[in-house]
Amino acid sequence: MLRPVAIHCLFSALLCMWTLCNAQSDSSPPAIQLRLAGEKRKHYEGRVEVYYNGEWGTVCDDDFSISAAKVVCRELGFMNAESWLPSAKYGKGEGRIWLDNVHCSGGEKSLAQCHSNGFGVSDCKHSEDVGVVCTQKRIAGFKFIRNQASEEGLSVQVEDVRLRATYSQRKRIPITEGFLEVKDGGKWRQICNEEWTEKNSRVICGMYGFPGEKRVNTRPYKLLAKRRKKNFWGFSVNCTGNEADLTDCKLGREIELKGNSTCEEGMPVVVSCVPGRAFAPSVSAGYRKAYRVEQPLVRLRGGAMIGEGRVEVLKNGEWGTVCDDNWNIRAATVVCRELGFGSAKEALTGARLGQGIGMVHMNEVECSGFEKSLTECYFNRDALGCSHEEDAALRCNVPAMGFHKRLRLNGGRNAFEGRVEVLVERNGSKVWGSVCSDSWGTMEAMVVCRQLGLGFASHAFQETWYWEGDSSADVVLMSGVRCSGTELTLDQCLHHGKHVHCPKGGGRFAAGVSCTQMAPDLVLSTQAVEQTTYLEDRPMYALQCAHEEHCLSESANTADPNSYRRLLRFSSQIHNNGQSDFRPRAAHDSWVWHECHRHFHSMEVFTHYDLLSLNGTKVAEGHKASFCLEDTHCDEGIEKKYACANFGAQGITLGCWDTYRHDIDCQWIDITDVKPGDYIFQVVINPNYEVAESDYTNNIMKCSSRYDGQRMWTYNCHIGGSMSSETVETFPGLLTNQVSHR
Fold it and tell me: Where is the SRCR domain (predicted)?
């Protein structure tokens, strides 16, 4: 039998345990604040940082999972998480590592509710800082809860941002001016202009695709603001001006509002932006007919969309690339603004948009964000070791021009293909109709795919009878379309205008396209050409097959069978630097068999070989059919796919090259009738644009050549650009290759 004292002690112990358990179950998790940080990132991804106990810190990647990433993203106002990244992929953080061994079920409302070792209990290093990638879509009605204790370093977080134009401004394309509004808690709110700066406006303009801001006449806006219902956001914004997005700016102080409707001495913020030249508005046409304006020192290559590409800079007359070491959103934004776009959406590394050629001109680039050109940024002139596998690229914010609303694809099996239809005003109303397929080709299809934001063209169709359609397919509204490939929209290309002329009519002969996100990019090796060029005198009787395939000049038609032809022979090594394999357009069963050489041609004209006078007149020519497109060699780690043996598949794999040796038929220019002198030796790959590529400007190689009647000097070979008409007055040691006939 228990004594009263023992019973009392037991009861007290049970009561204490019950009280403790209830206290633990009722206790709420500590208040924390999250943010995404780090370089080389978009606003919805980054290193996870936690504000706790008055200090920002990081989260260790031990035991982290996609469930934990979902909790982080939802706590930041995003719908969901796409992935998480370990090992400080967004750079090493600083300060404390607040959380380690985090275990979340995915249903928690805060990362603080997930199980962990406890705040500040960790054996990790910052090399293990975890990062997340969230979906871009925001939670509808998400209300950003501001923790007063974490004001310092806290980024702006809102659902959306917009420029609300006045009625008269809405008629202009693009919209460059209006009231700035942010969406927070599911409602659009104005920002009080009491502490608004031009640097803030610069960031907003960059987000909307404009390179700069300008001062605005606020007088008419004050009158409008008085008539409108006001619903102010309760905070100011503090941008330095070099941010790529408003979410990179810091929250300012909380503004005292009178009934949440007026700011004490100000009015709603109005932002006015300066568009790039290619997007400058015109009241009459809604936009100015303009082509993308290439700046003299920086350009973009290999991009599928407007405002994206591999970054290339001009140095000492030669275009070269930028190494991705230290490449970040700030440097990318400098390039975007320099080219007439807004701030950068992405800073891409690892040759994501294809490999360039030539020199790597800049490495370890560091920009403040206010430079007028990338060439003004600091870079390490002594850094070595960068290859084209590390070429930097970017994607820019571009203005909303509404290009995609004036064009559509109809009848295709998916959103990336179909018959091309244009929206045209006829008799006071807008109607949809088809495009005549006369002269329709890859360049025209490229413009269509880019205008619709669908990437590159993979095919251009001159017959579309196999696609379903409605009555709009029979009405031809555009004909005679000829594009250079640089136009922003199809109606910027040459065409017949209102005087449509299409003998074949629409319907089954309407123009069509198919689009793709990736394309090949063929580049010829200049070194291989320079090192293998020589002259050969070959008897006519040994050239019958080549003559049959039109590989000799016209004078060979009447030549004596015992006469000789003088051939300028060379090897060509063609590398695929793009993002996908190069494949002939023609189907396997439509290749043409050539009995004399006993092989198939998958492309009747794969390359043009020309000898030009210094003024560009053709004096001798040759051509090469693609009788054998195959992988001769590949970069390390890449397997060959294509081989011509046994009627095999033809093509050039990404990262591989095809070599046409100098000793095979038609690998020459017939210069029998050429007189001694100075010339330009030119090779053009895929000259008829039969197969779509991400960049056609690097398909041309030009060399300086001098012929004295017995010997040929070939030197200064380069890709793209125009050959200087200046000749070399003497034969200095600059001439890299001297060849004579055999």
Answer: 34-135, 161-274, 298-397, 407-516
Tokens representing 152? Answer: 């310092």
Of all residues in the chain, the percent with pLDDT exceeding 90 is: 55
Rama region for 256: left / alpha / beta (φ>0; ψ in -120 to 50; rest): beta
C-alpha to C-alpha distance for 312 and 357, rounded to whole angstroms: 10
Residue 142 reports pLDDT greater than 80:
no
Q: How far is CA 110 from CA 52, 73, 107, in A?
A: 13, 10, 9
Contacts of residue 376, Cβ cutoff 8 Å, sequence gap at least 6 = none
* CA nearest to 369, candidates 245, 196, 209: 245
Output the pLDDT for position 15: 44
**8 A C-beta contact, residue 42 and residue 248:** no
Q: What is the pLDDT of residues 91-127, one digit of tens each?
A: 899 999 999 999 999 999 999 999 999 999 999 999 9
- Long-range contacts, 582-589 (Cβ 8 Å, 24+): 582/520, 582/522, 582/629, 582/651, 582/652, 582/691, 582/693, 583/520, 583/650, 583/651, 583/691, 584/626, 584/629, 584/650, 584/651, 584/690, 584/691, 585/459, 585/690, 585/691, 588/649
Residue 161: beta bridge partners? 182
- Calculated CA dihedral for residues 345, 160, 488, 422, nearest 10 degrees: 140
Residue 529: alpha-carbon gap to chain centroid: 31
The residues, ordered by sequence, that sit 6+ positions from 470 with a Cβ below 8 Å of its Cβ are: 410
Number of CB atoms found within 10 A of residue 259's CB = 7
CB-facing half-sphere around the CA of 622: CA atoms within 13 A: 23
Give the CA-trace dihedral at 366, 368, 374, 380, to 10 degrees.
Answer: -20
Q: Residue 113 CA to chain centroid, in angstroms?
A: 40
Give counts: helices (H), strands (E), the chain: 8, 42
DSSP 555: G
d(CA 395, CA 341): 10
What is the tens place of the pLDDT at every residue in 181-191?
A: 998 888 899 99
Per the rule left: phi > 0, alpha: psi between -120 and 50, beta: everything else, 274 is beta
Secondary structure (3-state) at 669: strand
Cβ contacts of 241 within 8 Å, gap of 6 or more = 198, 199, 200, 202, 203, 369, 370
For residue 29, the 8-state DSSP code is: P
Residue 395 has pLDDT above 90, yes or no: yes
The DSSP annotation for 440-484 comes to --HHHHHHHHHHTT--EEEEEES--TTS---GGGT-EEE-S-B--
Burial class (CB in 10 A: 0-12, 13-18, 19+), 126: middle
- Per the DSSP assignment, residues forming a β-bridge with 321 are 312, 360
Instruction: Kindly report which listed range (443-452, 584-593, 608-617, 709-718) carries the lowest average pLDDT score.
Output: 584-593
pLDDT digits (tens, 9 = 90+) for 521-575: 999 999 999 999 999 999 998 888 888 878 888 888 888 888 999 999 999 999 9
Distances (CA, A) of 245 to 370, 402, 461: 15, 22, 41
- The count of C-alpha atoms lying within 13 angstroms of the C-alpha of 657, restricted to the half-sphere facing its C-beta, is 16
Nearest residue to 698 via CA among 514, 520, 439: 520
Residue 232 pairs in a beta bridge with 190
Find residue 300's DSSP bridge partners.
311
Helical axes 198-207 vs 329-338, angle rounded to 10° = 80
Q: Tell how strand 476-478 and strand 429-435 pair up.
A: parallel
Q: Which of 25-29, 65-69, 466-470, 682-686 has the weakest average pLDDT?
A: 25-29
Distance between start and end Cα atoms, the chain:
122
Rounded Cα distance between 500 and 113, Å, is 68
Non-local CB neighbours of 726 within 8 Å, separated by 6+ positions: none
What does the pLDDT average to over 581-602?
A: 78
Rg of the chain's alpha carbons, rounded to an integer?
Answer: 33
Question: Which two three-digit tokens encode residue 412?
Answer: 């295709």
Pairwise CA distance, residues 136 & 36, whole Å? 13
